[in-house]
Amino acid sequence: MKNKSIAFIAIGALFSLYSCAPVYKCGEEKPAGGIQGSNRLLDVVNERDELCEIVEVKDKENAYLIKNNQQLGITNDSLATRNRELVGEYNELEGNFNKLQDKHQTLQKDHLELSERFSGAITNNLNQGHLYDERIKEKERRLTEKENALLEREKRINELEAEIARQDSIAKRLNQLLKEALLGFDSNELSIEIKNGKVYVSMSDKLMFQSGKADVQSKGKEALKVLADVLKKNPEFQILVEGHTDNVPIKTATYKDNWDLSVARATSMVRLLQETHDISAERLTASGRGEYEPKASNSTATGRAKNRRTEIILSPDLSEVMNYLGK
């Protein structure tokens, strides 16, 4: 660009040398009356003016370019500085990236190990859970069996209680029937009570026997007849005849001691019930307790009188109760 400007200046100087009349310079205003000269001169001046304008434009362009080049230099320096900064940041980021990549690989390795351990733990837990579920199911099965057994036992207890209540009701009814049937006998001769679900008919020896004898007296036979009439209508009762004495020793040609006498008296009454009044032998039992189950003290005459007795113990048929117990 500088070389071109010099060339234009040289051309302008050349035109000035060849001019025959004074000519205005480049950049000056044209004279008001114009210039005088040949057409050739005028053409050269016009051409010079054009070249001057071109030179002026080129100078301005050159100045702009110089200024722009300077600005670009500054910008380039700034960009170079920024580039160095970015290169540094890049290197730092690359270093961080490499570190992060190494850490990522380490984490991946740890993750793989943890996944394997977790998978093993899950499998173990599933196995333990399955085993636990099986144990729970087994416990539930046993609990259900126990609950069913308890329900069945409760049912049996309820049935047993109902049967016992029924037997008690029957015993109470029999007790009432016997009391009504035996109203004609004195209380010191015959008494009736219920104990433990059984009916006890206690007959004194004064009513039933002569002293030291086992044959039933007529009044005692009347009592047995009344008793037998009631028992035949209530076949569900078992009949135990039990002889008792006081502790006064006895020894005769027939009876060795009180025990012999108590058994003989019970047997005598059982035979009457069976043979005379048609009570089934399967319902009858004879036993003797002698002096070994007294009701009162043997130290007084009154006490000894109470102890000399024969008890007819009427027990409800407990076969149904035993069936419930045996289930």
Descriptive overview:
This protein is α+β, with helices and mostly antiparallel strands and 327 residues long. It is 65% helix and 11% strand. It contains seven helices and five strands, in the order ααββααβαβαβα. A five-stranded mixed sheet has the order 1-2-5-3-4. The protein is rod-shaped, with a radius of gyration of 73 Å. Mean pLDDT is 85; it is low at 14-21.
What is the topology?
Blueprint: H1 2-18, H2 39-181, E1 190-195, E2 198-204, H3 205-208, H4 218-232, E3 237-244, H5 258-276, E4 284-290, H6 301-307, E5 309-316, H7 319-326
Parallel strand pairs: 3-4
Antiparallel strand pairs: 1-2, 2-5, 3-5
Helix pairs in contact: 1-2, 2-7
Low-confidence stretches: 14-21
- Sheet-strand content, in percent, reads 5-15%
**Spatial extent as radius of gyration:** 73 Å
Helix/strand order: HHEEHHEHEHEH
Largest sheet: 5 strands, mixed
Short description:
The chain has 327 residues and is α+β, with helices and mostly antiparallel strands. The chain has seven helices and five strands; from the N terminus they run ααββααβαβαβα.
Provide keyphrases for this structure.
single chain, alpha+beta, 5-stranded mixed beta sheet, 11% strand
